[in-house]
Amino acid sequence: MASNHHVIQVAVPRPLHSVYDYHVDGSTDVPKVGARLRVPFGRSEVIGVCISTKVDTPHDNTKAVLEILDADAAIAEELLDLAQWMSGYYHYPLGEVLATILPSAARKGSDFEIKPPPPPDLWHLLDPSAASPRAKTQQAFVQHMQLAGAPVTGPDLESAGFNRPMLRKLETLGVVERKHSTDSTALDPPLTATPEQAQAIEAVTKTKQFATFLLEGVTGSGKTEVYLQVMAPVLEQGKQVLVLVPEIALTPQTLARFENRFAGVGIMHSGLTDQQRLQTWLRCRSGDIRVLIGTRSAVFTPFADLGLIIVDEEHDSSYKQQEGLRYSARDLTVKRAQSANIPLLLGSATPSLESLYNVQRGRYRHLEITQRAGGALMPSFDVIDMRGQSLRGGFSDTLIRIIRQHLTATGQVLIYLNRRGFAPTLLCQSCGWQCVCSDCDAKLTLHRRPEQMVCHHCSLRFALPERCEHCGHTDLLPIGVGTQRAEETLAELFPGVPLYRIDRDTTRTTNQLNSQLEQIHQGRPCIMVGTQMLAKGHHFPQVTLVAVVNADAGFLSPDFRAPERTAQLIVQVAGRAGRAERPGQVWIQSHQPENPLLKRLMAHGYSSFAQAELNSRLDAGLPPGQPMAMLRAEAFDPQIALEFLQQCKGHLLNQVKTKNNTPHGDVQIMGPIPAPMARVAKRARFQLILIAESRPQLHRLLASIGQPKTPSSLRWSIDVDPYDAM
Ligand code: ADP
Ligand code: ZN
Ligand code: ZN
Q1: Closest Cα to atom 20, ligand 1: which residue?
Q2: Which of 227, 275, 632, 651 stands 20 to 30 A from 544 (CA)?
Q3: How many whole angstroms separate alpha carbon 435 and alpha carbon 433?
Q4: 681: left (phi over 0), alpha (psi -120 to 50) or beta
Q5: 149: phi > 0 → left, psi -120 to 50 → alpha, else beta; which?
Q6: What percent of the chain has pLDDT over 90?
């Protein structure tokens, strides 16, 4: 190597050791830290990121950088620091962390050129009768415009599922007219805050440095209005705001509330193309976008001048990535707010036990809204004892009677079920055999239209068995209730009442979901039946009854987080009831109405439930009291996965022993045991759970595992602060 070569460190998107030394020759400028570089790697070329231009002991056999893609940093120092921190915290190679946080177009080497956004266009409804009465989408469009009652922007129409070619067609037909609007459309004024809202707004607004607030506001308490009013002064100072929302909450309704209040709102979610994503990323970096509303990965967006971060529904599981780099976007916002020295506002009607624990320890400030906004009352809660009642497709006589009452009183009814499909089990009446997946340790769900057995874990589909595989009998009985069966039963019971089923099968496209939601929003009596897609975020003013078909499973699961999750779900679904002038009722069917957890939730509400649950976690030495990590391993040959985790365990026990001179010390290592779903897509899954006394101890132990040599058929990962047991 010639002496006029400059050696630098480059992180490449490869597992194992992902940081390597390369050199640039003396005639080339040394790249900036954070710049993307094209470098040779093995026999191929990869795009890496320069992470240091200082190398203590340059050695001779470095390869040359092929191309420097950015004159400046592509990844700003703040995000590079965050990546370094994540690499340590999640025990994930730095190069792969960087690959995760860069938009994929940037990762593939796209130019960082900001293309001017398309001119803002506003669509005015001209003549609804010009739309073809038989064209479903044209009618849906007219309905959409009539419901909006005002001109709608092109991007909003696009995100509602109406694409450009279709808009142009409607324009030629004379249904709509497009006007370019350079003047910003009139923005909504703020509402007059209630005293509780005002208190929360003031507390955050007067804070000028890093602080985390937990806004615990009952469903319908106007948390969004608090967000909006906290954002306003930050934006007036010329600073930007990041708002994280759960994937499911990105409804046009939610977006419209932000867009109608502020100019310069950008959106980031999984439905964007790579180029759209990169453009949004660049426009946040340049300061062009003032407010970014995004799902999980938006936490990695660079900003010119970030002044505030808001996380809506902070308890939501979609903030935790469940594969690859298993980060928690909510937890990362704390890091980002800290390094930018700005306030962070976490909001929820059902805060996570983690956040409540942080309040208890004085790390977060607690803000509360106990009353619903706009005069709406909290719904009433009651349990229906299903024991001894005759059931029709999962519905007790009592519940059927209550549904009828609400429909007669012209209310809308929302029915929650946690299973899509027709029936979760197909059972042989003669010998008890159940139809299972060939590739997973899972029962198959019976689906109708088309009739088939579907595995909800690996997505395999099978024809309906004609006879029992075990005894040959032909009496196979669907057991349990999925949304399709509930829909069928309700259609028989309430003929003529509009019925909307909302689950992953009926909402494959945003268009399908939006057109269902629009019809519901017209406010006529109807029944909605659906999974948790229906539970979160929606504001249905006409819903007076929410029914939970069966609340039991969640409280019986062995997963230590199951009670917390179940309570959150029940409270969130219940929160769709009685959100406007009309009071709401919540009825919950249970075979175990005496279950102490359910009783506590019903009698005392979420706060009290959560406090009791937190205390029992702390007593049991579980998170959030003590930090946890999970090692997962899977392989076609169960022995390979099991042996790997046994070796890890042996190694960890040795580490503990040499540190503490006691066999177990204060660390608990549980397993390896089969994962709750022990086989998925032919792979056997095992897990090893590690609970430490302190974070540093946990991280020391995890780091000591290093990068063991493993058979290529083994997949394994470390999950820090795991949310789901596989
Ligand atoms: P949350 O997010 O807490 O569930 P929302 O923000 O959806 O609640 O608010 C529920 C309803 O109350 C919305 O229709 C909203 O416009 C209305 N609202 C919120 N704040 C006020 C207020 N200060 N005065 C009148 N209405 C309000
Ligand atoms: Zn049988
Ligand atoms: Zn399967």
Answers
A1: 222
A2: 227
A3: 7
A4: left
A5: left
A6: 66
What is the rounded distance in angstroms from the CA atom of residue 181 to the CA atom of residue 369?
Answer: 39
Confidence of residue 120 (pLDDT cuts 50, 70, 90): low
- Tokens 């900003």, located at residue: 303
Separation CA 398–CA 663 (nearest Å): 58
Q: Which long-range contacts (CB under 8 A, 24 or more apart) does 51-56 make?
A: 51/9, 51/10, 51/11, 51/19, 51/80, 51/84, 51/94, 52/8, 52/9, 53/6, 53/8, 53/9, 55/7, 55/8, 55/9, 55/21
Of 355, 380, 361, the residue nearest 216 (C-alpha): 355
Q: List, in order, residues 6 or more apart from 340 with CB less than 8 Å away.
A: 78, 210, 306
Residues, CB-to-ion distance under 5 Å, ligand 2: 428, 430-431, 433, 468, 470-471, 473
Cβ of 312 closer than 6 Å to ligand 1, yes or no, is no
Cα–ligand 3 centroid distance for 649 (angstroms): 29
Angle at 575 between CA 571 and CA 579, to 5 degrees: 165
Pick from 67, 73, 25: which is nearest to 52 by CA? 73
Q: How far is the CA of 332 from the centre of ligand 1 (A)?
A: 28
256 lines ligand 1 (CB under 6 A): no
CA–centroid distance, 466 to ligand 2, in Å, is 11
Percent composition of the chain: helix, strand, coil (DSSP 3-state, to 5): 35, 25, 40
Give the number of C-alpha atoms closer than 13 A to the C-alpha of residue 499, restricted to the C-beta side: 19
Residues 99/107, Cβ–Cβ less than 8 Å: yes
Q: Whose CA is nearest to atom 6 of ligand 1?
A: 222
DSSP one-letter code for 278 = H
For residue 442, report the distance from its CA to the centre of ligand 2, in Å: 18
Residue nearest to atom 21 of ligand 1 (CA): 373
**What is the Cα–Cα distance from 239 to 235, expressed in whole angstroms?**
5
Reading the block at residue 241, the tokens are: 């705001």
Cβ–ligand 1 contact at 293 (below 6 Å): no
Cα(426) to ligand 2 centroid in Å equals: 11
Q: What is the pLDDT of residue 181?
A: 56
> In this structure, what token pair is assigned to residue 699?
């991280």
pLDDT tens per residue across span 649-706: 999 998 887 655 444 457 899 989 999 899 999 999 999 999 999 999 999 999 999 8
Q: Is the CB of 375 under 6 A from ligand 1?
A: no
Residue 228 Cα to ligand 1 middle (Å): 11
More confident residue, 574 or 58: 574
> Cis bond leading into 672, ω under 30°?
yes
Q: Which amino acid, residue 280?
A: T
- Name residues whose C-beta falls within 8 Å of residue 398's C-beta, 6 or more positions apart in sequence: 384, 389
Q: How many CB atoms are closer than 10 A to CB 702? A: 20
For residue 219, the ligand 1 atom closest to its alpha carbon is 4
Q: Evaluate: CB of 539 within 6 angstroms of ligand 1.
A: yes
**With a 6 A CB cut-off, is 191 part of the ligand 1 pocket?**
yes
pTM, entire model: 0.89
Tokens of 82: 């965050």
Q: 668 φ, ψ to 5°?
A: -105, 130
